[in-house]
Give the backbone structure.
Amino acid sequence: MDANQSSKSPSDWSDIDRSYRFPTLFLASKAVTWLLLGSIFSLIASIKMHSPTFLASCSWVTYGTMVPAALNAVVYGFALQAGFAALLWMTMRMGQVKLVAPGYLYIGATLWNIGVLVGIVGIMAGHSTGMAYLEMPGYALPMLFAAYTLIGGIALVTFHKRQVRDLYPSQWFIFAALFWFPWIFSAASCLLVGSPVRGVTQVVIDGWYASGLNVVVLGFIGIALLQYLIPKLAKRDLYNGYLSMFAFWVLLIFGSFAGILPGQTLPSWVGALSTVCSVFVAFAWIVLAYNIYRTIEGGGAKSDALGIKFLYLSLASGLAAALLTAWASRETIAEVVQFTLFLPGLKWLQLYGFVGAGLLAAIYLFLPKVSGTQWSSPGRWTATFWTYAVGVLLVAVAFLFGGWKHGKGLTNPDMPFMDIVRGGIAPFIRMSTVGELLVTIAALLLVWNVSCLFWRTYSGCLLNCCGLAGQGGDSGKSQSKKGSK
Amino acid sequence: MSAKSKKNTPKKKHAEDREPGFHNAPVPVILFVIAILLAYWGMNYLNTNAGGFNRYVYGPYNSYEVVADVQPGSGDDPIKRGADIYRNVCLPCHQASGMGAPGQFPPLAGSDWVNTDGPNRILRIVLNGLNGPMEVNGQSWNAAMPPLGDVIASDADLAAVVSYIRNTWGNEASICTPEEAAAVRAESGDRGRSWSAAELLALPVEVQ
Amino acid sequence: MNQGPTLFLGVLCAMAVSWIGFVMLPQVQLGSQSTRVVKELGRHYPSPRGGLAERGKDVYRAAGCASCHTQQIRQTGFEFDMVLNDAGDFTNSVIALVQQANRSLSEQEATDLVAKAPITIREGVKKEMADHILKLFKDSGAKVAANIRPLGPDIERGWGPRQTVGLDYLYDQPLLLGNQRIGPDLANVGSRLTDREWHLLHLYHPHTVVAGSIMPAYPYLFETQEIDGEPSPDALPLEGEFAPAEGMEVVPKPEANSLVDYLLSLRIDNPVFEAPYLFTQAESSEDNNSETEQAQ
């Protein structure tokens, strides 16, 4: 049974898109700012690895505070925020419904940003909780949860009020992600930070939370984007909804178990179960990638050359990350790569390569539609793409190969530790610093792009407010905006 | 197949900003074959590598039995080993003389509960604890003994301490073997609550 | 799947499965663990850290040391050393059995070994062979033991005598096990690097004690102050490029001292049920008293 959506002509989208303009621009601009901050923190940490006295005298910027600050800024500040913006847009478009209560969304978004800011400052001040992916101190977490109830609530209500009742596969993924996040976030906050469980149970629950966040929440948002944007740009329909369904259920049931490599201080069943589930997740990814491949197979030019590049980067990174995680979970391999740079390499592929590139594609493609203004400089966007892609791949490859070498050194008891670190991984760390610099530049360009758009969209309004209207071009621009598609 | 996946062109060309639809083509059988093979592999992998989902099995050890078997000193005299464990675990309450404390901890020396033909009931008391009224040598006691299954984690240790209790202070009952301890632990180790005297008296003294 | 309710139920079931698998089951198994009597130590294990070390753990957490250092020792295998403890009465047959157990021994060597009992007669055998050798000696009157020895690169590197297990971290909140080894593992650093001054110098600037180290310096844990008459007894002995200016000295702040106390409290030096190994008398200098009591 073919389920073709009715083809609405572009001019019909404007009222739906417009209902969402300010909150989207707000979410997107804040998200890219956090990406910039996160990549700066990451860069500082990377420089410290080969220049130990760099900024050494301040306790707020030690390596141990910069790494979690960077991770949390990118996950909560950028990925989740841009993810919310993207999934709201997809929900509205696919359901053909206007956003419900945009004002509350704005409040939720503000609260979210305040929460992330408080959290990051808390980490830098030394109040980190010590839990991976949940380092933000306990006092920041309720703010995030409260903000999410607003944002997630609005998303669910909008979903519920949809005009088109048939669900496109991306909507299943979005729906699942919306429910999964508050569940794992509240559970992890209570069991790890609020009223901590005893002993190594913390490690298991932390791993469960990290996998749930990476594979189910962020991963599902990324997959939803891939399955929505790639067919859209290719002007095709998705090849097979049943393949998506299969991948959906496999990833949902097994996704949060994946990723805890065997060899840690846990009973062997935890690592073994995680290995089996990592393999299932990799299989589901292969099915997804096949589905998308068949969708675009033999097709012509895509309607946006740069957008599709972001999406291909996203798809390739996500598939690579899933396959590498499954490969690294095998006991013989895990013995080598456990506790090495290999794991941050996987994280870069997953978070920056897959989710990040997907979200950047979404920002690139939908902000103009929502705001009604085109990007002022496509050239700057091309530069953004290339610096981002090269930077992410450089870091990922440096960490993956360096991590393998690191691991080989660690499994050789005759090799002194200093030799492993100095000779073995130092060149790879230098390569990764270059990559991180490129990513920081990309983030800077991104912030520039989005701010320009923001300014061009609202300059008329702002100047009107400030009584500076009547200056020819500006008011003219705002006039033309109202009538444009 | 590929003709079906090509876009169905409606009367007008697909607009620039068209929402994608999806087909529901039949799923290739190979998907289910691979899925079943993976599930089978997964089960096998868990069988060999998950250590029986036991909380005591870490790393290179394959099962609880292996861990229990490789404990150093497994060949030692069990009575002597039991004495060490008794001193560390039981002595605070039941005293070095095995006489306990009046009104608080029942005696083990000469106790009719200890001098039974088989160690079944004693093993269960040590593993899961005992609560409520009981009669020892004609006297009434009403005390609570905490579960020690986790504290005395190895079956060899458990058998050793029970053997010690049954062969000291004039007690002359049989030695408890690690196999008996393992059997009782397997049956009631995860019970989660203490025994009452009535429940224990309903059980046989021999380990099944 | 067009029904919202169907989707919701499916997601709810998946959540339940996920919760039961990795939250409830570990909590039931591991979260309810309590301290245990370890025979070799004669006391409950683990024991809580002292107050200053607890505060040091806080400094460790705040500085994010877990980003570069793990506190987890891994073990990849195990093997046995066969030890003849007592030759018994029938030495001739025992000599023959020893030769059977270790075919590389000549008769003279085997006789020497039996005379010197207790002594190791064969090293590094796998479990099947160890069981086989134990069965060989079963009715010979001799006492033979199979002493387990953990194997693994971490253990051979000297980072610890055995793998770390859940029981070791019972009192830690939060767990700072780390998952990166940009610096060496610290699970047993309190037994390995016992010099307080080394740790203080290392924290102040790692290059003072480890040339070419990539560990960042932590000077903010220390105070550079003027020498007030006599140099302070806590002042760090810094030389060359690391020495402070003329007339100044570097003393550790309470944070540095507590952090070093924490590091010195990190010890994995006794066997536990999940990670057995042969515990020798010499390893337990503090528990020598309880060891001699057991001899009664």
